[in-house]
Amino acid sequence: MAALEHRAATLDLSEGCARCGVAVGEPPPATAGISGGAVPPFYLFPSGNAFHGTCLASEVMQLAPPPQQQRIHTLLTRLSQVTTLNLVAVSPALAGVA
Ligand SMILES: [Zn+2]
Prior knowledge:
two-stranded antiparallel ribbon, 6% strand, globular
């Protein structure tokens, strides 16, 4: 685990998402699913594959059983509605962090 803490990778934001092909520095297509807010813009794997956060969630949802698909959908919806302002409103304990 200690070695993982110091591992780094460089990603060219013009590299295409492994699912949709759109550059990971650009927003995913609207058809990819729920995005925005606090949904991570992209993920980079040690294999070098990069996915938009939304595209990766869609990929995982295809493999998950229906109850977990619903849970992922619910969490993505909630994350997409989080902004810096309402993060403080939702969790007053975090207000002191900033
Ligand atoms: Zn994508």
